[in-house]
Write a structure and sequence with these properties.
Structural class: alpha/beta
Radius of gyration: 19 Å
Distance between the termini: 51 Å
Strand content: 5-15%
CATH topology of the largest domain: Rossmann fold
Number of helices: 11
CATH superfamily of the largest domain: P-loop containing nucleotide triphosphate hydrolases
Oligomer: single chain
Number of domains: 2
Length: 292
């Protein structure tokens, strides 16, 4: 039986709002009527917290350390609106590769044919950072994910991580690896932030999937241990996450990006830095950036 589920990997620099975005995406897809599994691939094991009222769940690796054999159902927990929640986990602190949890968990689920059994519409992998570890590259390298999206703000280090991800996708694109669906632009509250993201996706030959503003609503909901979709379903922010879910559900054509070289990225960022300085000092008016 072929896997029916549309498998998606969401990457992004730590602290960029990746798990917040992923959980709200899962929640919004579930409200649209889809059967969803969120697969947390961060060793901190906190991807699915807001789908389960702020509670942690046993991880695949922790459970395997306690038992020689594990039934995958023992590490699957129901969350908001029936979303299946899984945390891959990581090694004991200071020991082993942080990506080992992804490799082990994915292999366990494949062997026991869990995705087929649950008849899922979506499996969403929430993956840490850029591709610096073989484990974190698994959803891309092995072609497990059909489509990859990255969450990024307009900050340089977030874009640096996104560009590194693009390099990983490009590397594996000719050997059956996953391709890039686009950038989910997070914390976009200023016009210049949108301009920077728009220019970045243009020079790397990709696209913005959705612009997500920074909102106190998200903070209020997360302090309650919930997603915005659950705790503030009528808010403007929930409408943005629903729009993102609709766009991803309609997405079919992912591509190989064109990452910048290290010096190219530095030069590109430097031009934007000079532009913003001139904007701040009043040398130029607050208008769209020139062709930099």
């Amino acid at each position: 039986m072929a896997i029916k589920a549309k498998q998606i990997a969401i990457y992004g620099k730590g602290g960029i709002g990746k798990s917040t975005t992923t959980s709200n995406l899962s929640a919004a897809l579930s409200k649209l009527g889809y059967k969803v599994m969120q697969f947390g691939c961060d060793p901190k094991s906190d991807s699915t917290n807001t789908l389960r009222d702020g509670t942690y769940i046993p991880t695949v690796l922790d459970t395997l350390r306690e038992k020689n054999q594990v039934n995958a159902h023992d590490v699957i927990f129901k969350g908001f609106n029936g979303i299946y929640c899984v945390e891959a986990g990581g090694p004991s602190p200071g020991v082993g590769c942080a990506g080992r949890g992804i490799i082990t968990a994915v292999e366990l689920f494949k062997q026991q044919r869990i995705f087929e059994e649950l008849d899922l519409d979506y499996v969403i992998y929430d993956v840490l950072g850029d591709v610096v570890c073989g484990g974190f590259a698994v959803p891309i390298r092995e072609g497990i994910a059909e489509h990859v999206f990255t969450v990024s703000s307009a900050d340089f280090m977030a874009l640096y991580a996104a560009n590194n991800l693009f390099k990983g996708i490009q590397k594996y694109s000719n050997s059956g690896g996953a391709l890039l669906g686009g950038v989910i632009a997070n914390s976009i509250n200023q016009p210049y932030s949108k301009e920077i993201i728009d220019d970045f996706v243009e020079v790397t030959k990709t696209q913005v999937v959705e612009y997500i503003p920074r909102s106190v609503t998200v903070t209020q909901c997360e302090l309650q241990g919930k997603t915005t979709i659950e705790a503030a379903p009528d808010s403007a922010q929930a409408k943005v996450y629903t729009s993102l879910a609709e766009k991803i559900s309609n997405h079919t054509n992912s591509k190989t990006p064109a990452p910048l070289g290290v010096q190219e990225l530095r030069d590109w960022a430097s031009k934007w830095g000079k532009y913003l300085l001139a904007l701040q000092t009043g040398e130029i008016r607050n208008e769209l950036a020139p062709n930099i």
